[in-house]
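lol so apparently i was supposed to do this last week
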Amino acid sequence: MMKHAWDNYRQYGWGHNELKPIARKGHSTNIFGNSQLGATIVDALDTLYIMGLHNEFREGQEWIDKNLDFSVNSEVSVFEVNIRFIGGLLAAYYLSGQEVFKIKAVQLAGKLLPAFNTPTGIPWAMVNLKSGVGRNWGWASAGSSILAEFGTLHMEFVHLSYLTGDPVYYNKVMHIRKLLQKMDRPNGLYPNYLNPRTGRWGQHHTSVGGLGDSFYEYLLKAWLMSDKTDMEARKMYDDAIEAIEKHLIRKSNGGLTFIGEWKNGHLERKMGHLTCFAGGMFALGADGSRDDKAGHYLQLGAEIAHTCHESYDRTTLKLGPEAFKFDGGVEAVAVRQNEKYYILRPEVIETYWYMWRFTHDPKYRQWGWEATQAIDKYCRVSGGFSGVKDVYSSSPTYDDVQQSFFLAETLKYLYLLFSNDDLLPLDNWVFNTEAHPLPVLH
Ligand code: DMJ
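anyway here it is w/ 1-deoxymannojirimycin bound
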């Protein structure tokens, strides 16, 4: 499947950010700006390396060496470029030892730094790589920056300081952490929106899915990446998770544990596909948890994995919808038409893989195999892999996008699920939110 995805991108989309596998041409979205930055190449590199696809890896390296240029007049998402490009380049560097990846990662990081020039030091969501001018998404509450965006820079920036000896990157992300630590949190929850001019929260909406997700993930992973010495990060994670469990996690009438969303004092009984990553996060954070609740968090991870598997199993295609409800007799099923799509996302498989590593219960491989077969049956087209618009329809239509995270994450987690534990052991490696492995800094 990796060969099929890569070879078609190579043939029809080379150098573009992503591939349209049906139109057989390049594709891009506003997160990458208007330049051809080869997002799929950078995102896929470490997966190619891990799978032993060394010729393909070399092709990617050559393209990066000769063509990847960040001095372009293009406005990109700071978060997306950090997790996919800086994360991808750093992982490729650590795995292969090739200097070019480190050099490119540092060059790119330099281009992101102007985004931090705000009155509070909370970065803008977007920055122009040439002019350094930053701004926020028009749709975000009251000109706010997004928690999951400015809160998902820590791992990569700490590694940049480690590799260059320059503390500038470290200082930027520690400043964000200190600022967050000082703020009042309604019910102990972090709202998704924070205004970078005033330093005040925007709308009180809390989510462990889109807009919030990887902020919590990076608190835990900051601790793991520091060889469990960064106790401040661990405490922030523990506090946040306790509040989430109290206010957001519920059991449905049918006995399915789900994580809802908090909107202005009201719990919305809806869970996103993105939220399913949290099963793996709870399992990963079990060891070292407060009051010796390791068994509890492993169990919570297993319950989320089960719920997310149900969201796949209750569809026609056996692929999970973008969001599903637990309301009015409905359990783990999408209700609105615009929530029925599957865009090759990794989160459910990511959770299967973590649960497999921690329990070796064969059901996780079984569930991963079901997902593999469904993707290969319904998302494979002759020009690559495509998302589908309705997982409840037996004749789905394609969205004609092969997302770069399909190669970075979905296929990597599947490969790891069926590999031995000594391939990237979790004692030595921490995966960034785009599944790029970075070493623990002992
Ligand atoms: C990826 O880019 C990352 O996993 C991110 O944290 C969330 N969304 C996509 C995949 O769904």
